[in-house]
């Protein structure tokens, strides 16, 4: 399942819904991404908020493509991606990825794959707010390198 939403999510509720009736799963991996109030190198101010923008329809299509790629690579019982958009403050949840499989290795690898691809391929644009103003965030080479490890 894929959900792109402005509203926050409840990790406990999402987990309970994910495992309900799933007796073949031997492993469930969850990843929750949070907004940090970090300070970039060379930047005077800490991040006060971020704004995530996306194009409805296009975003869901790409997230589905990424999710389908994980299901082709690993024997997953199920997976869930929830990605938020809008203005978010430090400590707010941004993303939830849950993967379920018969075995832990597949669940862990699929979760890592999904996060690496969400960071680099999902069509979201991020703007950071600091006391000095706002700026759009550029892609990081380290994120691209992490995603490249999954190329065939």
CATH class: Alpha Beta
Largest sheet: 4 strands, mixed
Strand order of the largest sheet: 1-4-6-2
Q: How many discrete structural domains?
A: 1
Quick structural summary:
With 152 residues, the chain is α+β, with helices and mostly antiparallel strands.
Describe this entry's structure for a reader:
- This protein is an alpha+beta fold.
- The protein has helices spanning 11-19, 58-73, 104-121, 141-148; strands spanning 2-5, 27-34, 49-54, 76-84, 86-88, 93-101, 124-130, 133-136.
- The protein has a single domain (2-138), classed as Molybdopterin biosynthesis MoaE subunit (Aldehyde Oxidoreductase, domain 3), CATH 3.90.1170.
- The chain is built from four helices and eight strands.
- The strands form two sheets. The chain has a four-stranded mixed β-sheet with strand order 1-4-6-2, with helices on both faces. It has a four-stranded antiparallel β-sheet with strand order 5-3-7-8, with no helix packed on it.
- A hairpin with a 2-residue loop joins strand 7 (124-130) and strand 8.
- The longest helix is centred in the last third of the chain and has 18 residues, at 104-121.
- The chain is globular and about 50 Å long.
Topology of this protein?
Layout: E1 2-5, H1 11-19, E2 27-34, E3 49-54, H2 58-73, E4 76-84, E5 86-88, E6 93-101, H3 104-121, E7 124-130, E8 133-136, H4 141-148
Helix pairs in contact: 2-3, 3-4
């Amino acid at each position: 399942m894929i959900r792109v939403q402005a509203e926050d999510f409840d990790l406990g509720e999402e987990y309970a819904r994910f495992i309900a009736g799933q007796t073949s799963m031997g492993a469930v991996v969850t990843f929750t991404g949070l907004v940090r109030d970090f300070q970039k190198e060379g930047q005077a101010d800490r991040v006060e908020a971020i704004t995530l923008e996306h194009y409805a329809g296009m975003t869901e299509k790409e997230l589905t493509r990424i999710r389908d790629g994980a299901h082709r690579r690993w024997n997953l019982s199920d997976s869930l991606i929830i990605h938020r958009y809008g203005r978010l403050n430090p400590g707010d949840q941004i993303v939830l990825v849950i993967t379920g499989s018969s075995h832990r290795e597949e669940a862990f690898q699929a979760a890592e794959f999904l996060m690496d691809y969400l960071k680099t391929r999902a069509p979201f644009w991020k703007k950071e707010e600091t006391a000095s103003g706002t700026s759009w965030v550029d892609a990081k080479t380290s994120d691209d390198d992490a995603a490249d490890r999954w190329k065939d």
